[in-house]
Structure prediction request, 497 residues.
Amino acid sequence: TSPYGDLISNVKTFLQKAISEPPQNPLSAIRIINEMIIGPVTKAQSNITGNLFYPGTLLDESVSIEIGGIESAVNVLLSDVTIEHLDTVGNPFKVIDPIGANAVTSSTTFGVPDDQLKVKVTLYVKISGDSDSDVLEDKLDITLQVADLSMLLSTFLKVSTHRLENITLVDFLNGYCWAAMIPAPSLDEYGVGQYETEDYPTATIMDLALTFSSMQLNIDCISCSSKGFEELSKRLQTPEGKKSFSVTAGTFFSRLMEMMGGKISQVFVDRALNEAQGKCANPKSAATNYKAFDVQSQEPYPKVLVSIICFGLFLLTISFAVKECLVRRLRQMERERLKNAPNEEISRRIQQEYRDKAYQDTLDSSTDPMFLSPVISLSVRVLVPFIIIGNIILFLTGHLSLGASVAINAGLAEQKVMIYHFYEFSMFRSAVQMWTSGAKILSVLTFAFSGVWPYSKQLVILGLWFTPPNRVSVKRRGAIYDWLDLYSKWSLVDIFV
Prediction:
């Protein structure tokens, strides 16, 4: 039709008719694809029609991992990959079939009618620990059979007719130039498309699906140190095992297709369209470097706990302030009352204060420190300092030594794997880890109330036990003990942490 003529529509009509023909028809597009395209290509590669064979090693990766202070070497090797029955393309088969003004869909099916699609691979896995006894080494032949494997891809594309009409023969075989026919969206510094623009998106994945009627997994041990693989192979051959694996694989691929069709894939599509604009003119042009995403580190400890502790400190500060205000107010009221009081009452009040002060002075000058006081038995006077020093030693032991340790005893294919000291707990280590992890407020609170305060309390008690009353009065010493007893509970903050 105008202005493009009838060539494209006639070709589309011919292809649709060829695709709709049954496979037995020599003009069937499916038969042409299987016998004239896939068949010769696969036979030239593997000498077997419909099969692809890649001998030798395809993947050989060795990594070192450290778990709980134990370093292990992991070696994974994939070799001898075979794909069978690729020439089983069947209906439904669609290639760039329009479903809207800017939407097309493509679909195909493998593994029909009777020959299932098969993928065979040899897998070698070796995990070695610190000692020669901690070695897991297995070599497996893995076969995956899939029946009626259907793949569907629906896309939304805005193609520039001007670029399509003016494509040159030089660019005809350049895939980047075909992609450049789709206008590239505007990207920010992170390489993410600007969603607020009217023409966004210019290309997106509308639907992505992969389904199958059944999937079967076979595992054969060539040489296995893990006896459980033989039992696993037998279970996979049972009807229950086949059904369970097929359902699990279907759920996995369904979730995988959802992820691939989401926002993450849209970012890759947008970046690819922008890269295609430059690669079409210069295939050797460098790729664009985008700014890395700023990932906010999460607080490893709940903010509610921090808020509660801070609120408790706030109430404590308020209580001190209120107490001080009340004391000052009572003293001021007493002074105002005494201004209008009779002289006899004022004189009696002054004499009482002198008597109280004289009593305290006499008490302070006539008494000894508690360590030397004859009122207290000798055994208590000698034992208390040792008890206080013992408490300090116990605190140090609890804070610095190992509080708990987590060990992992795992079984992999009936082969036991033991990881000792996977994680260790101690108060001092927890405070340091909280600081390095970003929970600095909790680290400071834990260090102050569970690290400094218990020792301060013990040292103050020990000091008052030997300090004579002429240095610290009996009344002040009693008040200090009362305050220590009142606020000793704050040394239990680390329990909540």
The chain is about 45% helix and 25% strand. The radius of gyration is 41 Å. The longest helix spans residues 303-339. The chain has two domains: 52-281, 368-496.
